[in-house]
Amino acid sequence: MRDPKLPAPATARRSPPGLAGTLRRHSAWLLLVWFALSVCLFLSAAPPAASPLLRPAVLLRNTKPRALATATTAATTSKPPVRIYVYDLPSRFNRDWAAADPRCARHLFAAEVTLHDALLSGPAAARPEDADLFFVPVYVSCNFSTANGFPSLSHARGLLADAVALVRREMPYWNRSAGADHVFVASHDFGACFHPMEDVAIADGIPEFLKRSILLQTFGVHGPHVCQEAEHVVIPPHVPPEVALELPEPEKARRDIFAFFRGKMEVHPKNISGRFYSKKVRTELLKRYGRNSKFYLKRKRYDDYRSEMARSLFCLCPLGWAPWSPRLVESVLLGCVPVIIADDIRLPFPSVLRWQDISLQVAEKDVASLETVLDHVVATNLSVIQKNLWDPVKRKALVFNRPLQEGDATWQVLRELEALLDRSQRRRRSHVGSSRR
C-alpha cells in the first residue's frame, strides 16, 4: 500500500486535476453504490427458501384484502404459487341460505360451504390484481331437498347468473378472461347441469356463462358427458370431519359384519316419473342378498349407521341417481373397504388416493357374482387392502377441515387447481409457439 505522505506517481500527477478532485470527493458514495449492487446481485442469484404457498382472498365490494388459507406442495417444487381470491358476495348468495337451514353446512352437498370457510381461514392476503384464480362463493345446494327428497336446484341457474352479473359489473377480473380464471362449486348429483335427474340434466346442459369457468364438482365419469364439458376438478362429497374421530381407529375396530349396506333399496325401482332408481342395482342387491346371512342389508334409516360401517369388512357403495355417494368417504374414514358398484365413475384425487389399492370396483352387471368376488378377496389380499386403506394420510385427504390443514380435502383441491393451471399455461405456450411457425 502506498504511503499517503509520499508524492503521487508521475502518471497520477498528469491526470486532469478536476477529475481527480471529483473522484476523491465522491469515492465514499461510489463504494456504497458498488456494495449495494453486489448485494442485490447476490440475492437475486440465491435460490428461494422452500415455504408454504400463500393463497390470498379479497373482498368484492371494497377490494380490502381478506385472508385465505395456505397450502404447500412438495418441498422440492419450483412452481410459482397459485393465488386465489374469494369474492365477498352479498349474503343472499351464501350466508343467508346457510342461516336458514342448519343442514346446509353438514349434508352431503356441503362442500360448497366448507370450501368457502376453509379458503377464508388462512393467514395470507394480497392484491386482487395478483390473483391466478377467483373463487365465487354461491350456495346452490343449501335448500337441501323438496318434498320428494330431491335436491332443490330450480333456483341455481338464476342465483349464479345474478352473482356473475355482479362480479362482471363491480370488478374487472371476469371480463379479462370471460370467467376462465373463476372457480365455482357444483357439489350435487350432476354438477353444473343443476338437476338431480340425469336425462333432464343432460338436456339442460351447463349454463353458457359457466362453460369457460372451473367447476369443483362431485360428479365425474370416464368418457364424455355433457355435465362435465367444462374445466373441472372432481371433489369428494362432504362428510363431517368428526366422523374420522368419533369411532375407534380402523385397525382397532371389531369387524363382525361381512358386507354392509343401509339405504334406499326399492323392491320396485321404477318411480312415478318412469325412471329406474340406481339402474336397478340396489333392487338386485336386495333380491339376491337380502336373506343371505353374510350380507347386512337394511332399508330403514338409522342415525347411528356409521357404527355399523365401523364393524364391517366391506361397505357396499352402489350408485343412486348419480354414480357417487357419501358412503365412499364414510367407508374410507371408518376403515371399511368400499365396494364401488357404479360403472365409469371417476373418483377424487387419484394421485393421492390410489383407489385401486384401497377399494374394490364391481361392474353393475356383475352384482350376481358379488359374494364370490368378496370371498376371493378375503382369501387372498384383504389384509393388504386394509393396510393401504387405514393409512391416516388417505383418510385426511377426503375431509374438508375448518381451518384448512395440510393434506386435507381443501389442500388437495388447491393442488389439483395448481396442476390445472400448469396444463393451461402449457397449452397456451404451445398454441403461441405453433402460431409463430
TrEMBL record:
Q: Which GO terms describe its cellular component?
A: Golgi membrane
- Presence of keyword Transferase: yes
Where in the cell is the protein located? Answer: Golgi apparatus membrane
Xref: InterPro entries: Exostosin, Exostosin_GT47
Coiled-coil ranges per UniProt:
none
Its GO biological process annotations read:
glucuronoxylan biosynthetic process
Keywords, A to Z?
A: Glycosyltransferase, Golgi apparatus, Signal-anchor, Transferase, Transmembrane
Task: Give every Exostosin GT47 domain span.
Answer: 79-375
One Pfam family matching this protein: Exostosin_GT47
Q: Which GO terms describe its molecular function?
A: glycosyltransferase activity
What is this entry's stated membrane topology? Answer: Single-pass type II membrane protein
Q: Does the keyword Transmembrane apply?
A: yes
Family as reported in the entry's similarity comment: Belongs to the glycosyltransferase 47 family.
PANTHER family, alphabetized: EXOSTOSIN HEPARAN SULFATE GLYCOSYLTRANSFERASE -RELATED, GLUCURONOXYLAN GLUCURONOSYLTRANSFERASE IRX7-RELATED
Name the record gives this protein: Exostosin GT47 domain-containing protein
